[in-house]
Design a protein that fits this description.
The structure is a homodimer. By secondary structure, chain A is an alpha/beta fold. The first copy, chain A, has seven helices and eleven strands. The first copy, chain A, has one domain (6-186, 193-225): Rossmann fold. Strand 4 (53-55) of chain A pairs antiparallel with strand 4 (53-55) of chain B.
Chain lengths: 234, 234
């Protein structure tokens, strides 16, 4: 029997801050044997707060049972709190102790409004840390806060850190380090373990499925551009 | 006469690595007086390499003249090199010295294939640095490389650094620091100038247009959840 996939659902509502969702999506979607879903009221495209439009693939009614629930933040969070279908969807995960409940930025305020942060330590965008106690949560000003099955990330780009932490919980340190190395987070020059990185890099380079095709495409380019001397990369 | 908007166009092709585009989008779209476009062959939705689907708003034919051209990378870059409409679109910016030409990750290989990196210093995803010389470029292994009007970023998350650098070129240090502080990059605890950050934070908090609405929504939550003691955030 093969192990079933890890199912991750990321909620998308109008006026989400898109990077709250897209940054962790990039990490989550690289976890081995993962099934990704972007969940909304309907599968019609959703405009995010600065105009980028994203298409959900499932709805609150049709979404399969999740192993990880993720809620992004953004200006739309205020209105989303009055969206019954969305709040019911979040609320039903309040009793599922085997589901990781996660948020980035003001997404935490939606978890809170659904009652999922009561008595929990949590974080959110720095402009809203003082709003968390209204939901019975204890605000902590760090990039990622884990309390039982609830794991919250601070503002926007902290979603990368949050998702890497969740990846480590799900698939371990080695697989997560591969994801981080691929998305170059943090950049190699700032990496705490450069020796391990060098080793990992060589291994990943040898396995990269696109290298040969890229070299061939580059050779065509060199011909087209009339570049005959191939320089060595510094 | 009011100054005209800064027009930024981000190219989107099938199997783009979505964070290559979405991370800089978040920064670009927060530049004052900016007009954002996601450009593709048609305005039909485009599936990125790990499934996330994004909707372009203009095409290579209808896109207005750009002040900043941005090209993301991803596995789709190899096929995109044979997309004549896309390559022509990039190519026509080769002679526009007043347009900033930018890329993240293997997007640089598309700039290169269009002949825009000849004789330029540039960077790309670490797995492809040795491909750049086929395009007549000099590979440099740093997060962001600027050479004249061509500015390239390394892999995936380096797009945040790239976009902040472009923002600084366009709107100066102060406005860019506000964007960085809003998206929490880097996180406050890692910020090199914590004193300046404190000052900026207080100012931004006072001006935040959503704070009052969030507090009111939170008060309703506290009532619903029966939370009567409002704790202070730590």
């Amino acid at each position: 029997m093969s192990p079933r996939k890890t199912i991750i659902g990321m909620v998308l509502y109008p006026n989400t801050t898109q990077l709250d969702l897209t940054a962790p999506y990039e990490v989550f979607s690289r976890i081995p044997d993962v099934e990704m879903h972007v969940v909304s009221n309907t599968i019609a495209s959703v405009k995010t707060d600065r105009g980028l439009t994203i298409v959900p693939d499932t709805t609150y009614d049709t979404c399969p049972s999740l192993d990880v629930l993720f809620i992004p933040g953004g200006p739309g969070q205020i209105k989303a709190q009055d969206d019954k279908a969305l709040m019911d969807f979040i609320g039903k995960y309040g009793n599922k102790k085997d589901c990781l409940i996660s948020s980035v930025c003001t997404g935490a305020l939606l978890l809170g409004a659904a009652g999922l942060l009561r008595g929990k330590k949590a974080t959110t965008h720095w402009t809203c840390l003082d709003v968390l106690p209204y939901m019975g949560a204890v605000a902590v000003d760090t990039p990622v806060v884990e309390d039982g099955n609830v794991i919250t990330g601070a503002g926007v780009t902290n979603g990368i850190d949050l998702a890497l932490r969740i990846a480590e919980n799900l698939c371990g340190k080695d697989a997560t380090q591969r994801i981080a190395r691929f998305i170059e987070y943090p950049h190699a020059s700032a990496h705490p373990d450069r020796v391990a990185l060098e080793r990992l890099s060589k291994e990943m380079l040898a396995q990269n499925p696109y290298r040969q095709a890229r070299i061939e495409a580059a050779e065509r380019t060199a011909k087209q551009l009339g570049i005959s001397v191939i320089q060595k990369a510094s």
